[in-house]
C-alpha cells in the first residue's frame, strides 16, 4: 500500500470510529440502552450515566470472564501488575483502562480516534482515576523500547491495515519478561464462516462486489450501518506465524460468548436449550474472539 493510500485508509478508519464510537448501545455508535426491565433509556455521551450503562452492557456480554478479583479477572492478573506500567492499545470509551486504574496499575491508554480520547479522559475525571491518555496510532507508538510490563488490546488491531507492524510495535515497547495480550476476531468462527462468508457472501451474492476483507469489514463492527473501513479477522496459524513469531509461550484461546445468540438465529432459543456442556464446547471451538497471550524473553 502506497503512503498516500495508507494515509487515506487510516483517515477513513479514524473518522468512522469518531462518528460511531464503541458505545455498546442497542445500535453501534448510538446512546440508547435497553434496561433489565425491557425499557429503553437514552443518555448523553460523556455523562456518568452513559458510562454506567455502557459498562453494564459490556460487562454483561463478557460475564464468563469475571471473577472475585474483578471484571475480566479471569484473563487479567490485576495483582501481578499492580503498580506496574500497563499500556492499552485502543481504549474506546475507557471501560477496560478504568478497571486497570482502579486496581492500581500505572495505565497508559491510547486510541487513533480523538472521540475515544476525549471520552476516556472525561471518564477518568468523573470517576477520579489516574492515567496517561493519548491520541496515538498503534503502528507508530511514541514510547521508548522496553517501557511497559504489560501491553494489551481488546478487539482493536484487526482494524488497522498494518496489523503486523502494530504487533511489532507492541513487542518493541514491552519490557523483557513482560507480557502482551490481544483479543482479535476469529476467522474460523461460526460468525465469520457462516454469517459473513456463506450467508452474506454466497447466499446474498455479496461476493460479486466484495472480497474477503470487504465482507469482514462490512459485516463486522457496525454491520447495521454498512460496516467499518477495515476489519480483518485472523486465524490461529496466522497469529503464530505472522504476528507473534518473536514471542515465547504463545497461548490462544477461543472466547465464544457470541455463540448462543448465533444459534438462536437458526432456531428460537436454541442457544439456551442446548446442554451447558454442549454450549461450552461449541463456544471453545467456534467463538468470534481469540484471546492471545505471549511473553517477551527476559
Mean pLDDT: 93
Number of strands: 9
Main-sheet strand order equals 5-4-3-6-7-9-8
CATH topology category name: Rossmann fold
Q: Level of helix content?
A: 25-40%
- Percent range for β-strand residues: 15-25%
Helix-strand pattern: HEEHEHEHEEHEHHHEHHHE
Number of helix segments? 11
| Unreliable sequence segments | none
User: Kindly, what is the distance between the CA atoms of the first and last residues, rounded to a whole number of angstroms?
Assistant: 35 Å
Main sheet record: 7 strands, mixed
CATH-defined architecture: 3-Layer(aba) Sandwich
Under CATH at level 1, the class stands as Alpha Beta
Number of domains: 1
Structural class: alpha/beta
Radius of gyration: 19 Å
Q: So what's the overall shape?
A: globular
Looking at CATH, the homologous superfamily is Vaccinia Virus protein VP39
List keywords for this structure.
298 residues; alpha/beta; Rossmann fold; two-stranded antiparallel ribbon; 11 helices; 9 strands; 18% strand; globular
Verbal overview:
The chain is of the alpha/beta class. It has one domain (about 65-295): Rossmann fold, CATH 3.40.50.150. The chain is built from 11 helices and 9 strands. The chain has helices spanning about 5-20, 50-60, 95-100, 115-125, 165-175, 190-205, 210-220, 235-245, 260-265, 270-275, 275-285, and strands spanning about 30-35, 40, 85-90, 105-110, 130-135, 150-155, 175-185, 250-255, 290-295. The strands form 2 sheets. The protein has a 7-stranded mixed β-sheet with strand order 5-4-3-6-7-9-8, sandwiched between helices. Strands 1-2 form a two-stranded antiparallel ribbon. The longest helix is centred in the N-terminal third of the chain and has 17 residues, at about 5-20. It is globular and about 50 Å long. The two termini are about 35 Å apart.
